[in-house]
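HUMAN: Now follow token order:
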Amino acid sequence: MQRALVTGGGGFLGRALASYLQDRGVRVRSLDRVPCPVEGVESVVADLRDAAAVARACDGVDTVFHTAAMIDWSLNKRAQLHAVNVEGTEHVLAGCRAAGVQRLVFTSTVDVVFSGAPISGGDETLAYPATHLDDYAGTKAEAERRVLAANGTDGLRTCALRVSTLWGPGERFRIPRFVDMARRGRLMGLGDGTSRFNHLYITNAAHAHWLAAQSLGDPASAAAGEAFFILDGEATNFFAFYSPLLDRIGLPSRWRYTPAWLVYPFAVISEAINRRRPDTTEPPLLTRFTVTSTAGDFWFRSDKARRLLGYTPVVPADRALDETAAWMRSALAEAAS
């Protein structure tokens, strides 16, 4: 691997992956709607829906990491989600073929196999469900299908990494929200606290992408055309997972849980309201996916990734917590100044 394109290089995973690749001597180009902030990365500012721009970005690289996606749980953005996640992925595939790219690693999600029913220790033998709870998961599943089907065409080798929930320094969705809840003494979880869920530290996610690309470098790679669940260690409760982080920054970490049977009807109502407001840009306040994926078991095993990619987490849990706590303390101090 000498030169790589990272789509979504301005995002949480894209930034981490660009840095990880550069540290290993790879020249990196980013394609995103915003410039990649990593020093030394060539930034192409464009949209996945622009097929010509995607093709130009693919030119001259030997490996593409397709991390970019529209992540939105609104119920009235199906057309936009399809245009970005499915048609945008087709543009990436076309760009790879035209440029003679040899390797494509697609960032998928564990959501592609979730129908709302509990999953305990799932593996890659799970089929795609007939229907998904939201259009985001549905479009990611369709994009994954197309990437895997493209394996072996025009010299292109592909695979998909189904990442679990990402966390670490720079994550600005869940961690700040839980920190704010803890500061106000209102840590509220769903379920009874016994359900299990997987998380994935950001550096470990970048490492898995590196390993996947290395494996695809072998024309006889066993990883080619395959999907892999990528996660850290043992599954834990989705909410309690963040307690050690809150402890490290001196905040209360006791969760109060609300039974799923009590909040699920509110999720149904929230989704119904969202559907009737086609002009809104906000997702529902609560969704069936949120309730079922955190109040019930939703966890997987990464045996296949360990066997075929050699994947194991390179950053242990304690170090990951220390690094994230240091970042969070700095962010809190900056916000207070």
In short: The radius of gyration is 20 Å.
